[in-house]
Specification:
Blueprint: H1 11-25, E1 34-37, H2 51-66, H3 76-81, H4 85-95, H5 102-113, H6 118-131, H7 147-158, E2 162-170, H8 171-182, E3 189-199, E4 203-212, H9 218-227, E5 233-236, H10 242-247, E6 251-256, H11 273-282, E7 285-288, H12 289-292
Parallel strand pairs: 1-2, 1-5, 2-3, 5-6, 6-7
Antiparallel strand pairs: 3-4
Helix pairs in contact: 6-8
């Protein structure tokens, strides 16, 4: 039976199948079979912009409409004008290690949810997923997941793995869709987190701060604090995933966005230069979207 039908036969697929088949011979028990996956650019498309940014732009435009003075400052100016070049450059600089513009983005993010209950935020995000379409694929975001990665999740689970999402994306933005899109329940979603507080009306609400950004060296810290085990398989795609891959004791997969065949995932290396350059030295298995995936998105 072909358990990975969207994967071409090649070195990446062989590495996965060999690693998994060897676990029984090595006597690795199910409780040690922990796999962690980045989300944006690893489990689903992150271009032309991360999905959460699409949601936030809608929220920021609405906020600037209610308070026109916001339209003169970033990132609200980008949301109102539709010129996202400032945001794109800020994100690219972050992946290059320059967070000079990250503060303005974080302040706008926490302002969006400040004082909101976790249930109201969940409902707002769920409504977004129900209505929004991917900006270039022109289909719901459920159709922007990578079909080969969904198959990999199921393959690992059938071999005793417990799979987690470990993302720089915000945890509570991912949770409303991860069960439906990936088959991963909310308690196995690890991501950046907004500050929370319990209020007198018996409600958990968001505060005016970012609790932590789950990226780079923070990812292994959050893996240990949430899971209490070192993963034996990890998959990422960017510079921010290098430490998570380093922390993993077994198979380390690095998705390379090199598909120039027009299947909907345009090629790019920006934000992954350091990871790709270090792949051979660190022993990462590079997964070429162009060469290793027969299918990219669900039909």
């Amino acid at each position: 039976m072909n358990v990975l039908p969207s994967w071409n036969h090649g070195s990446a697929r062989q590495a996965i199948e060999t690693f998994v088949s060897d676990l029984d011979g090595r006597g690795v028990p199910p409780e040690q079979r922990v796999a962690v996956f980045d989300n944006d650019g690893t489990l689903w498309a992150e271009k032309p912009m991360p999905t959460q940014l699409h949601y936030l732009l809608q929220q920021w435009a609405a906020a600037a409409s209610a308070d026109p003075t916001l339209a003169d400052e970033q990132p609200y100016a980008a949301a109102v004008s539709g010129d996202y070049s400032w945001l794109g450059a800020a994100i690219d600089r972050h992946y290059a290690g320059d967070d000079s513009d990250l503060g303005a983005i974080v302040r706008a993010i926490v302002r969006t949810t400040d004082g909101m209950s976790v249930e109201d935020y969940e409902a707002s995000v769920a409504d977004f997923y129900a209505k929004a379409q991917h900006l270039t694929l022109k289909k719901p975001y459920s159709g922007a997941v990578y079909q080969p990665m969904i198959e990999l999740l199921r393959y690992l689970e059938s071999n005793g793995f417990t799979c987690y999402i470990v993302s720089g994306g915000e945890r509570d933005f991912m949770r409303p869709m991860t069960t439906e899109y990936y088959g991963i329940p909310p308690e196995r979603v690890i991501g950046s987190a907004l500050g929370l507080k319990y209020t007198d009306d018996a409600t958990v609400r968001y505060g005016a701060e970012l609790a932590f950004l789950d990226d780079g060296p923070e990812k292994p810290v959050r893996i240990w604090s949430r899971i209490g085990r070192r993963p034996i398989l990890a998959c990422g795609n960017s510079n921010g995933d290098v430490q998570m891959l380093d922390y993993t004791s077994g198979l380390r997969l690095l998705v390379h966005h090199d598909d120039d065949t027009g299947r909907g995932d345009a090629p790019y290396d920006k934000g992954a230069e350091a990871a790709l350059a270090a792949a051979a030295e660190k022993g990462f298995t590079v997964v070429s979207i162009r060469d290793d995936w027969a299918t990219v998105f669900p039909s």
